[in-house]
Predict the 3D structure of the following.
Amino acid sequence: MKDFSRRTFLRLCGKCLLGLGLGSVLPPAVARAAEGAPELHVIQPGDAPADAGHFRAIVFCDSQCGESYDAWAHTFAAAFDRHGVPDFFTVIGDLVDCGASDWHWSSWQEAMDSRASSAVFVPVMGNHECYSTDWLNCLPEGYLSRFAVPENGSARFPGYYYSFDYGPAHVLVLNTQWGELDDLLPGILPEQIAWMQADLAAQKKAQKKGRRPWNIVLMHKDILAYDEPQADGQTAGFSDVGRALMQHFDALGIDLVLTGHMHAYRDRGHIKSFHPAVTGPAYVMCGRAGNEYYYVPPDKFDRAAAPDDHPESYVTLDVTAEQLTLRGWETDGTLLDTLTLARSSQNPAS
């Protein structure tokens, strides 16, 4: 008979409980050990050095997979192999295919290697985090129980959205899931807009002192509908999310908005007052990191687009006080696009 250490025995028992869908009865630390996954260091206030004048980030989105998370493992490894361990990395929503499934969460986390423990992780909630195992809308308990993000001061929506500072950037992680949540826990959109206004008012005071000149938004659903039906039945033009938030981004001085959801890479450059512009927020939809592919039609706002059915992709950010450079990559190393924002002009450089 094979001998097992106490640690191994507990891990195997934990894996058995996870396999039976009973992960909720396990303490989080035991569940992570049972999953055999790298420990994730979720972003916390003070994680960035006080004098950090530059940072590198890797941006993934839609790492959700069906029967196997091999595609996510490949995307993660390709990005870290090519660019090294970043200061932080993020997945912009739809981390897993089913947010209520312990199997999906354990498979997603196991797909990453030990380098995931060496960088700060910035989680963003997507609509798939709000799906039950019978594919109905549910509260995102699987997501909330796994990621202790910075506090947002909300009594009703703690963990649903938040912000943090990193070197020369202030980053807002917004929640675009009111379509999934409003029948269960209504009110996240107006609360979030009020919070965002207060958060950026405080940030503006810091900017006057020469600190953190960039404001970056991470949010799951995109600003354009493409061919996805919206609440009013519209399937083109600006999405429900775009119509709800873009006017506030204009007013509040957001520099860059990174989204996902449609599983395609699209760089729209600057959009202001719902029209192409040379200043104002720049909008990039960051592709997909998992194996779920959707056809996404072209749109008149697309400045750069990956080929239809392109391989998995990711984005890198290099940020200093003077310049922000975004690059979109396929996992084979193909450079999809470059967008550079200069602090002096807020215009994209070639």
The chain has a mean pLDDT of 89. The first strand starts at residue 41 and ends at 42. The chain is about 25% helix and 25% strand.
